[in-house]
Amino acid sequence: MGELRGTHVPVLLERCLELLAPALGRGGRTVHVDATLGLAGHAEAVLQAHPETVLVGLDRDTEALAHARVRLARFADRVHLEHAVYDELPEVLDRLGYPSVDGVLFDLGVSSLQLDAPDRGFAYAQDAPLDMRMDQTRGVTAEEVVNTYPHPDLARVLRVYGEEKFAGRIASAIIRERERGRITSSARLAELVRESIPAPARRTGGHPAKRTFQALRIEVNRELAALETALPAALDRLAVGGRLVVLSYHSLEDRLTKQALADRVRSTGPIDLPVELPGSEPTFRLLSRGAELPGEVEVTANPRAASVRLRAAERIDPQARQRGRTDRERYRRRVKAMHQPGTGSTTESGPDPRRAPGDTTDEEGEGT
Ligand SMILES: C[S@@+](CC[C@H](N)C(=O)[O-])C[C@H]1O[C@@H](n2cnc3c(N)ncnc32)[C@H](O)[C@@H]1O
């Protein structure tokens, strides 16, 4: 196995560490889940920064796990590496005996190892067998998708997962080509896509095959279905004060993340009630304002960071929040009463009524 450290630069590493620190560094043993371990760049930095933290690292790619194992060898006594799809997280945690965790990181998409491997078929720029499975021990390959899906299914995959405007034309070209012979190589597929896209459109939006390859990869690995299940499962396992950070690389992943967080940061009670009904309070607060983007310096140094979108949230204690609200309300009423005529109070002598103690805006991301 070759040395890979130099070829993979963890994306938004400092920001991820900063966001996870309050949850992982709060004293005693804490548990961090890296749901997409890859080459363990983020995981290694977390273990270094938090000597008390236990890592549960998941990856569906056995090759990535083997590299991660070597890289994390010096932390072996507090590392569990698991060959699993991230929607299997609850079963993994149950088996390891961790009912709740303190940090979870999802760094979605493919790793440099997968993209750069000449034989795995993820890259349109290299000729390889059309595989694209992150887990090469199971599942259907891109070759099977391309050579067996009927036209409507193929076009849907390209349109939905690749946001490809010319999905229908590309699907038709694939069907015509496979009638002549099986499509087996990534270079042939990339060429077919290029020929299907009208010349003026080829000049914009990067390599013409980029969207088709992304779409096939998502389909082959059932990426969105796994994410849709995994995000709520991970949020459910976070202890109060525990934090989740998600790095997405295309709009479909980011939309699922945004939705999963939105479901937890708003009240589920009727909007016209002045008080929260028990059990309807928000259970998380956002730590990021919208989606955070990488800085120019990072993108220049690591072009793979260009499309990243970061979102993060922290589990809160709804009861404590409710108590905080009631305290603030009582305080406001007291201050208001002091300013009623006849009470003898003035603004100079009283505290600032605009700032109640602990009255921070916690609905929208406030950073760390
Ligand atoms: C972008 S890489 C992670 C890189 C890692 N953060 C690092 O610093 O080296 C994404 C990894 O997630 C894995 N992965 C993608 N989807 C997965 C899933 N549904 N379940 C488990 N692992 C997955 C891929 O195999 C890949 O190794």
Reconstruct the topology from this structure.
Elements: H1 13-24, E1 30-34, H2 41-49, E2 53-59, H3 62-71, E3 79-83, H4 89-96, E4 101-107, H5 112-116, H6 142-148, H7 151-162, H8 167-180, H9 186-196, H10 199-202, H11 210-220, H12 223-237, E5 238-248, H13 251-265, E6 284-286, H14 296-301, E7 309-315, H15 318-338
Parallel strand pairs: 1-2, 1-4, 2-3, 4-5
Antiparallel strand pairs: 5-7, 6-7
Helix pairs in contact: 1-2, 7-8, 7-11, 8-9, 12-13
The protein binds S-adenosylmethionine (SAM).
Structural summary, described in words:
The protein is an alpha/beta fold and 368 residues long. The chain folds into two domains: 5-113 and 223-316, Vaccinia Virus protein VP39 (Rossmann fold, 3-Layer(aba) Sandwich); 136-220, Putative methyltransferase TM0872, insert domain (DNA polymerase, domain 1), CATH 1.10.150.170. Helix content is 43%, strand content 12%. It is built from 15 helices and seven strands. It has a seven-stranded mixed β-sheet, with helices on both faces. Strand 1, helix 2 and strand 2 form a beta-alpha-beta unit.
State the CATH class of the largest domain: Alpha Beta
In what order do the strands lie side by side in the largest sheet? Answer: 3-2-1-4-5-7-6
Rg (C-alpha, Å): 25 Å
Classified in CATH, the superfamily of the largest domain is Vaccinia Virus protein VP39
- Give the number of DSSP strands: 7
Structural class of the secondary elements?
alpha/beta
- Which CATH architecture of the largest domain? 3-Layer(aba) Sandwich
Shape: globular
Residues in helices, as a percent range:
40-55%
Low-confidence stretches: 343-364
Question: Gap between N and C termini, in Å?
Answer: 39 Å
Q: Spell out which ligands are present.
A: S-adenosylmethionine
| Element pattern in H and E | HEHEHEHEHHHHHHHHEHEHEH
Look at the structure and give the mean pLDDT: 87
Please count the helical segments.
15
Sheet with most strands: 7 strands, mixed
CATH topology of the largest domain: Rossmann fold
What is the total domain count? 2
Beta-strand residue fraction: 5-15%
